[in-house]
Design the sequence.
């Protein structure tokens, strides 16, 4: 009897409560009901009134993040499990900071999804809706689709790493309008077509385009790049190395043209890159002699022209460079090396295997060499190859044969899919 009464009372009071809630907070009831459903992954973003946010800007991005969470199709490490509640700054992968326009506010300033292997059909409607985003790093995920034009609205974005994902389509041109972009890494995707020449006019510090399907003649604007690191390897870039490359002499430190389809003779302006530590144009279709101007690459450690159609003498002056660790000319058609270069061969620095150098081991057959030289070969301006556009003193003192270290070489790290480059560059 008593229990029945209790039950009735409980029911009545709940109905009353329900009723008064409906009158006072018609919305909150709906939200409460929502809260209790068991599968948050299926529910639309919660209306954030019930959550208390540390800052209005976090309340604004909360539904954006929840919507993105709902389109994630794979999350092997359970990262998105932490994307609950109002403490957005504590979600795994998200970092908050004071936005430049209001130093008392808190906003999502940085996202680091490196290596999380998240899969989503698009980033559209996600990063382009986080107005205070300054860094987005997503190396080794499975994001796909094309890059939304809306990305152009991210006024603070300065580092974008989309490397090793499944992005398709043309080069993401919306990036060209980002005012402060300094780091762009889109290597290891399936981008096709051409790279807009304008990208070399941006004030970038690092540009990694390697391992895509870009097909195009290198534009003259390449010489306008302010990048320290420029990696174009493993694409289908064609045409000659632009002479304008000489204009990058104050900044360019590591450049990889490796594994493309570049043709023509090497412009003497390459020798103007006095800051260059790595210059790698291996496995292309470059021809002509090596310009003596390379003598001016005072800092050069790795100089690679292996696997081209180069010929002539290896200039002795180039072999005088004291910081060379790996100077590879293998698989060309060089015919002569002098004593300075022979010393480098002995030191294991210079590699001239598979050339046409009489008296050295591991050379091409006489027939092969004869066949190559049967065709008349020349460069447009033969006099350029003897220009040495710097003051040359005695041979540089060789710093004792250094062990070849790829550790600090950012450009070669870019050739590994999973490497996160921002760590190196900064
Ligand atoms: C932040 O998240 C971790 C788990 O991801 C949790 O243990 C911790 O309590 C959270 N901190 C705050 C302040 O909410
Ligand atoms: C700056 O942010 C704080 C915290 O969100 C806010 O209270 C304040 O109104 C903002 N100031 C301006 C000028 O928007
Ligand atoms: C460098 O740029 C200037 C103009 O900015 C141009 O006149 C010059 O030809 C360029 N140098 C090279 C080597 O392209
Ligand atoms: C030197 O460079 C060539 C061409 O990139 C490369 O194949 C070779 O492994 C390098 N040598 C060393 C010792 O790393």
Sequence:
């Amino acid at each position: 009897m008593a229990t029945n009464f209790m039950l009735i009372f409980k029911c009545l009071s709940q109905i009353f409560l329900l009723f008064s809630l409906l009158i006072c907070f018609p919305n909150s009831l709906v939200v409460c009901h929502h809260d209790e459903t068991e599968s948050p992954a299926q529910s639309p973003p919660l209306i954030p009134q019930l959550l208390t946010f540390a800052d209005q800007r976090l309340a604004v991005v909360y539904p954006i993040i929840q919507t993105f969470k709902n389109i994630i199709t794979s999350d092997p490490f359970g990262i998105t499990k932490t994307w609950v509640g109002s403490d957005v700054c504590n979600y795994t992968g998200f970092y908050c900071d004071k936005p430049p326009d209001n130093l008392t506010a808190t906003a999502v300033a940085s996202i680091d999804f490196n290596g999380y292997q998240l899969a989503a059909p698009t980033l559209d409607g996600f990063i382009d809706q986080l107005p205070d985003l300054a860094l987005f790093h997503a190396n080794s995920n499975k994001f796909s689709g094309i890059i939304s034009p809306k990305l152009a609205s991210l006024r603070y974005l300065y580092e974008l790493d989309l490397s090793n994902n499944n992005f398709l389509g043309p080069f993401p041109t919306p990036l060209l309008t980002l005012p402060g972009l300094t780091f762009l890494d889109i290597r290891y995707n399936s981008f096709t077509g051409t790279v807009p020449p304008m990208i070399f006019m941006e004030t970038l510090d690092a540009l990694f385009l390697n391992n895509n399907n870009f097909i195009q003649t290198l534009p003259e604007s390449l010489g306008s790049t302010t990048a320290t690191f420029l990696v174009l390897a493993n694409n289908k870039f064609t045409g000659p190395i632009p002479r304008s490359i000489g204009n990058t002499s104050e900044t360019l430190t590591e450049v990889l043209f490796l594994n493309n389809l570049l043709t023509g003779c090497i412009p003497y302006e390459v020798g103007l890159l006095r800051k260059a530590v790595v210059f790698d144009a291996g496995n292309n279709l470059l021809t002509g002699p090596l310009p003596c101007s390379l003598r001016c690459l005072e800092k050069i450690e790795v100089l690679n022209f292996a696997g081209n159609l180069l010929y002539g003498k290896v200039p002795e002056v180039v072999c005088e460079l004291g910081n060379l660790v790996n100077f590879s000319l293998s698989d060309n058609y060089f015919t002569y090396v002098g004593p300075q270069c022979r010393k480098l061969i002995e030191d294991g620095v210079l590699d001239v295997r598979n050339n046409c150098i009489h008296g050295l081991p591991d050379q091409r057959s006489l027939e092969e060499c004869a066949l190559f030289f049967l065709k008349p070969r020349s460069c447009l301006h033969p006099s350029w190859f003897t220009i040495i556009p710097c003051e040359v003193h005695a041979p540089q003192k060789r710093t004792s044969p250094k062990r070849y270290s790829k550790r600090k070489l950012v450009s070669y790290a870019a050739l590994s899919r999973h490497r996160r480059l921002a760590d190196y560059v900064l």
